[in-house]
Write a structure and sequence with these properties.
448 residues, alpha+beta, nine-stranded mixed β-sheet, 14 helices, 35% helix, 21% strand, elongated
Length: 448
């Protein structure tokens, strides 16, 4: 048999690691549903013509076709018939909303946890196949501004329930950025945003040069842009700092009002998590309102683990436009860091709480009956695979991380042993309860 080698960029977690990933998925689902979001699943493929509408993504799309498809038969030549694996969940959402608009009630509150595929170069936290988890509220023609804060509150609650170090959500608004740049005399806003977006990678001096060369800024204007991007506050004091730099006018004041309202609403719901951060430029060419990025304390090198914002053109047809607000977590990327940094561990590596021992093969029906009685009461258990000596069966449970071993008795006096403490006591499979902390697997922070 040929040697099996791993494919980079396609994570396959071990069972205990998968428990951590599943916990993140479960928390996301539980909190989203508490806030009235409904889950959807969309197909894995979309027509290539739809996928390429997002721009600058053609090198990352995986094309799907039959092994023996022939060139020129339409399947490979026609982008409307060629299928590609979706690289995010936004393109499928736009198509889904248009396709089902008559069956949906707006605003439509949707969450989606699904795998996506991108032909990127694999590296730490970057995969070619990974789970993405999205929250979006989609309106029809209009969408109230307060929903921008509402979605951030839901995501903050999700992250707060995960075994992570403190998380901060950084927020900016397109209106404030655009208003400030125009107030100081700049017109090529796309070039300004594109230059400021490179601050974390190339630093202040290099960005100053780009602002002058690419955005047409004077040295004084470039300096004000850089000072604007350095504003970060825990409260609404950012407003006076913007004004002190020369930010004035109706658009600036509207942006200040918008950002202040979002911060106050999120702070009231989840104290201490929100930050004004006027350096956020990424995505402002797509987002039309508030934009969010999220960072884990001590793991800033991971970059933003959750980003998104307000967009007014998710989709449109001849009758309606569909504005929305959304936030997205690269779930596999986050889980990868949780595992590599040992931020969280399951309380045991398998779901099984009880191993039911087998005295001999003739007695296996009694063991099966005890296991059935326990499972009917929601206690996860399995029956020993062989009728080995009890010592070997206990060691098997220990290797698997199973805390209890059940010993059926033909006389009806079963016993259960906690193999961690060695304590053994009589038990009835119809009434016995394990300690609450052992009944289900818990995912807990390691304290690191």
């Amino acid at each position: 048999m040929a040697k099996i080698s791993a494919l980079s960029g396609f994570p396959e977690w071990l069972p205990a690691q998968r428990l951590v990933e599943q916990h993140v998925i479960d928390v996301f689902r539980e909190v989203a549903e508490l806030h009235g979001f409904s889950e959807i699943q969309t197909r894995a493929v979309e027509p290539l013509s739809q996928l390429l509408r997002k721009g600058e993504i053609d090198k990352e799309v995986y094309v799907l076709r039959r092994l023996h498809a022939e060139e020129g038969d339409g399947e490979t030549a026609d982008p409307d018939r060629t299928l590609g694996l979706h690289f995010d969940l936004t393109v499928p959402l736009a198509r889904y909303v248009l396709e089902h608009q008559n069956d949906l009630a707006f605003p439509f509150r949707r969450f989606q946890i699904q795998k996506v595929w991108r032909g990127e170069r694999p590296q730490d936290g970057r995969f070619r196949e990974f789970y993405q988890a999205d929250l979006d509220v989609i309106g029809q023609d209009t969408l109230p501004g307060h929903i921008e804060a509402d979605v951030a509150v839901v995501m903050a609650e999700i992250l707060d329930r995960l075994p992570l170090p403190p998380v901060t959500i950084h927020v900016n608004t397109r209106r404030l950025s655009e208003g400030f740049f125009r107030a100081i005399g700049l017109q090529d806003l796309t070039a300004v945003l594109r230059s400021l977006d490179k601050l974390p990678k190339i630093g202040r001096e290099a960005v100053r040069e780009l602002l002058v060369s690419d955005a047409g800024a004077s040295p004084e204007q470039a300096e004000k842009c850089l000072d604007f991007a350095q504003i970060r506050t825990r409260d609404d004091s950012f407003a006076q700092q913007v004004r002190d730099l020369g930010g004035s006018g109706e658009t600036v004041e509207e942006g200040i009002t918008e950002l202040t309202a979002v911060m106050h609403r999120v702070e009231a719901a989840v104290p201490g998590v929100i930050r004004a951060d006027l350096s956020i430029a990424r995505g402002l060419d797509y987002y039309t309102g508030t934009v969010f990025e999220t960072f884990v304390e001590g793991h800033e090198s991971l970059g933003s683990i959750c980003s998104g914002g307000r967009y007014d053109q998710l989709a449109a047809d001849n009758r309606h436009t569909y504005p929305g607000v959304g936030l997205s977590i690269g779930l596999s990327r986050l889980v990868s860091r949780m595992l590599s940094a040992d931020l969280a561990r399951p309380s045991r590596p398998v779901p099984t709480c009880v191993l039911v021992a087998v005295a001999d093969e003739e007695a296996r029906p009694a063991s099966d009956a005890a296991a059935t009685a326990l499972r009917r009461r929601g206690i996860a258990c399995e029956v020993a695979p062989t009728a080995a000596k009890f010592g070997k069966q206990i060691r098997y449970a220990d290797r698997r991380g199973i805390p209890f071993v059940w010993f059926p008795s033909s006389e009806g006096s079963d016993e259960v042993k906690d193999i961690r403490s060695g304590e053994q006591a009589p038990a009835d499979a119809t009434t016995w309860e394990p300690p609450a902390e052992d009944r289900w697997i818990r995912i807990a922070p390691t304290g690191r």
